[in-house]
Amino acid sequence: MIGRLTGVLAVKRAPQILVDCQGVGYEADVSMTTYYQLPEVGEQVSVWTHLQIKDDAHTLIGFKTEQERKLFRQLIRVNGVGPKMALTILSGTDSREFAQCVSQNDIVTLTRLPGVGKKTAERLIIEMRDKVDDLICEDLLFDDAGSSEKSSPSNKNEAIEALQALGYKPADAEKMVKQAEQATDVEMTASGLIRKALQTSVQR
Q1: pLDDT tens string 11-70
Q2: Which residue ranges does the chain devote to CATH 2.40.50.140?
Q3: Domain with residues 66-134, CATH architecture
Q4: Looking at the chain, which residues constitute the CATH 1.10.8.10 domain(s)?
Q5: For labelling, which of 111, 170, 178, 195 has a CA lying 20 to 30 Å from the CA of 7?
Q6: What's this model's pTM, rounded to 2 decimal places?
Q7: What superfamily in CATH does domain 4-63 come from?
């Protein structure tokens, strides 16, 4: 079992990264919550990992914190929630926000995440109610305002592709990115666009 990777961040293209560990490159899917906290390409990085084994593929999933990995492992135990949906949930909400949704029976917010219907949201609330209290929830703070990378067409395309990978339809992804740009006067990086798009979607 591969539980943690430490090495050089060789590729960073949402929602996937590649970590070079002494010449061996490990690809891992990550949530947008983790993606926002990663360093720049070429810098040292450490991520907690979960190895998902299927008949046709072995997939590594990376997390910036052990807390996020713990929540992911709790989520995939819920009936009807697979790894992809769990990553989508972790991309649209952080641990504190998810715990708040569960404790307040907030089905509406959960169903705004792609692929999460009313029945799944209800199962999440029922099956996770006794588990979220055990999770150490921390605020995840990000600041893109100081970045010199602008909201160029390539950044927009990367943001749209990442949202599609999370389960949004192409037209919806384009609309979300456009709304994210209109919601702020600050020109953003690709990760900033993704974050703003997801926040706007969940807050609708």
Answers
A1: 998 889 999 999 999 999 998 889 888 999 999 999 999 998 887 888 999 999 888 898
A2: 4-63
A3: Orthogonal Bundle (1.10)
A4: 153-203
A5: 195
A6: 0.68
A7: Nucleic acid-binding proteins (2.40.50.140)
Residue 89's pLDDT band (cuts 50, 70, 90): confident
What's the rounded Cα separation, in Å, for the pair 190 and 170? 16
The position carrying tokens 């949704």 is 101
Q: Which two tokens stand for residue 151?
A: 């909201």
CATH, domain range 153-203: 1.10.8.10
Tokens coding 29: 């899917």
